[in-house]
Amino acid sequence: MINNWKVDESDSFSDHKMITYQFLTGIGGPTKMVQLTKKTNWGKYRSILNKKLSLKEAKEFSSVREIEEEVDYVSKSIRDAIEQSTPKIKIKIGSKLPNGWNEELTRLKQETRRRYNLKSKTGSTDADIEAYKEIRREYHSKLKKTKDDAWKEFCQSCENQSTIARLNKIMTKSNITCNRMMKRPDGEYTTKPEDSRDMAK
Question: How far is CA 165 from the centre of its chain?
Fold first, then answer.
């Protein structure tokens, strides 16, 4: 059941106002199942994966579609092998700050909201508006840098793991969409599947 919905008049840091509400389920806090990758049975993993891959005969590919189907099969086999050889536990989902969030960002966010309220009041001056724009630019700039640094740190943490663990982390934790790109003679990459098929002809 949804209760107490309203339009939030505070600065949402975008061109739109946020709608806030309470969602009542009548049950306890949300939970999710997570894999204990540190306890993965790698012997079992290799056995399952080898069995799955042995079902596919080695062959030469004559089209991009066949390559894509083979990649999909291998990717699914890896995920299935990890799923079957890694124990899981149920954990509570609590409020969690974004990676890299720090006291400086908290201060800038609070100051941005304070400046927004000042410039929105009747009788605000041009100086109030400019002060708001300046602090907002600073907040967005540091927020972007924090996100970029957090992504670089994640990539570096992948590099410090074994090949199999790195592959599992990327496939299970990142929402990565494969564009199935191919490199053109001019050094650029295709952006659409049909472009890749045209190159393979």
Answer: 18
Question: What's the rounded Cα separation, in Å, for the pair 180 and 85?
Answer: 29
- Coil/strand/helix, residue 183: strand
Structure tokens at 162: 């074994």
Residue whose structure tokens are 């083979």: 70
Phi first, then psi: what are they for 34, rounded to 5°?
Answer: -125, 150
DSSP for residue 129: H
The encoded tokens of residue 150 equal 């957090």
Residue type, 164: I
Is pTM beyond 0.70? Reply is no
Amino acid at 146: T
- Name all contacts of 150-153 with Cβ < 8 Å and 24+ positions apart: 150/98, 150/99, 150/100, 153/99, 153/100
pLDDT in tens, 26-48: 555 667 788 887 788 999 999 99
DSSP-based three-state secondary structure for 5: strand
Q: Calculate helix-pair angle for 126-159, 163-173, nearest 10 degrees.
A: 140
The whole-angstrom separation of Cα 21 and Cα 5 is: 4
- Estimate to the nearest angstrom the gap between the alpha carbon of 38 and the chain centroid: 22
Q: What is the CA radius of gyration of the chain?
A: 25
